[in-house]
Fold these 3 entries.
Entry 1:
Amino acid sequence: MLGKVNRTLLAVIGAVLLAAGTTLLGGWWPLHGRHVPLLTEEARHRYWHADGWWWWAVPAGLALCVLLALWWLLSQVRRARLGAVEVDTGDGAFALLRGRALEEAVAAEAGALDGVAHCRASLCGRRGSPALRIAMELEPHGVPADALAALAGPVLTGARTSAGLPGLPAEARLKVTSHRAQRVT
């Protein structure tokens, strides 16, 4: 979601800046030439001394822009990964399992599957209800259905039991490694 917001925001800002730059450099409408002031004396007097919605709309629009910019900045800083998972120790207390350790274990087990060239895993969600995002890169001879079945079976079951979780939802994205075509002679 955040990637789409970033791309959209950059596209809109880029289009506005491009339009403003070409308008100012070309001296086109609404400037009516390079030597004509941007606001005429009449326009400055009308808007400067206006009573009504104009002076309320400008600060409100600017405040909205500032709030949206702050939201965007804070969403860039926020971590998407989960740092730790709560594991019930059985005596009423909880232990913390490092999220990075669980990610590395799942990635190592899934990377060792037949037909998998490379695997990355990231833990997201909350401490009480984590979820996994797994990106698997398959070798050219790898069968996606077999790799997905092996991932859903022993790999995720082992991760679920070792973390003491009743459920561990996972989202897997499969990609095939690029390879050169083989010559037939």
Entry 2:
Amino acid sequence: MALTWFTRRPEPVEAATPEPWPEIGETWKPEGVTVVERYYNLGNAVVLVYRSTGYHVVACLGCHYQTTRYDSHYSSLLTLEQAAKLANTHAAGCRALPREIPARPDEAAAREQLRTLVHGLRNRDENVTLYLFHLDRHRLTLQRTNDWIVGELERLADDEPEVLKVSVNEWGTDFRLQRLPES
């Protein structure tokens, strides 16, 4: 009798289905982003905490507040606890009304948005390594997976080698933003 208590296995449980958002009555799972927590501000707009490359981002869907850093003087990326604290603090003081949830852009629009972001990250002084977490703040509007972004960055490097160079090493693919030309 006692032996059967230790050999029983619980029945497998299916993953819980996400609850619909009250504002829209449906779930919203943008590709390339994992929404971890949601807060409501004073105007009932949603303040999201999401993760895309292992770090967290806080974004308000009422105003245009977004951050990937806990302190502007300290450059560490957000942990879940820090992101939750920032989201809660922002939600407690923000009075913005809810905006529409960003629609997923088509392929051409997402490609152009990524190209614009890459051009904007270039520096006049030196070549800079581009990491995927540099694009985390833009994931809600881009709504693409890491694999898609890497493929498009490789394509951009082929099309515009004066902007972006690609190198492959034992750790993976490196992207180097090339310096802006002298005026």
Entry 3:
Amino acid sequence: MGGVTRAASSPAPASPKLSTPPPSELATGGPASSVLGLAPVIPVVVLDDAADAVPLARALVAGGLPAIEVTLRTPAALDAIRAVAAEVPEAVIGAGTLLTPGQIEAALTAGSRFLVSPGWSPRLLGAMQDSGVPFLPGVSTASEVVALLEEGITEMKFFPAEAAGGTAYLAALAAPLPRARFCPTGGIGLASAPSYLALPNVGCVGGTWMLPAEALATKDWDRVRRLAQEAAALAA
């Protein structure tokens, strides 16, 4: 994730569309260093209670969504990442809403296997590049995309997707900036996701619609699993 361009000593074997690379492959920075192809949707998770992290992750993985972004918006986030990393090895757990190098260090220590930021600065980008794991720096303008391409980074988060121009904006970027690939996030739902996924420069989308507040409040993990299956089926 994040277009890391460091060369690997030998190419890793290609993984099926919905299979999860081993942690050692996902963190190499080589051919297996992207999670954009793991599933059509990356759930964007905000947790107030770290105790919910493991059953939630198991439900998402069972539904076919192995890459899970836990946002660092709550005090429970790092503990949630730590729990999933320890107890749900089939999940590819990542950290989102990263704003500082210190948060990146804390996320890696907790077990994050990929990193996501809503935007980027040279200092934040440098910390992501030094992390040794895949990452998606956030962009919302062509100039930001060009600046990242100059750094050799080809995979990015497009945020906030709907507010920043949606599918029309991303389609307009495809011809002049064909090397850039995106995970659009922000305002995307089940109805709009297919139009994003149909674009040649979109690898997956990020969303929360498979995590309705009432399902999390009542710990209805079976509903989460069913909604995850519905989202995973968008790859068909």
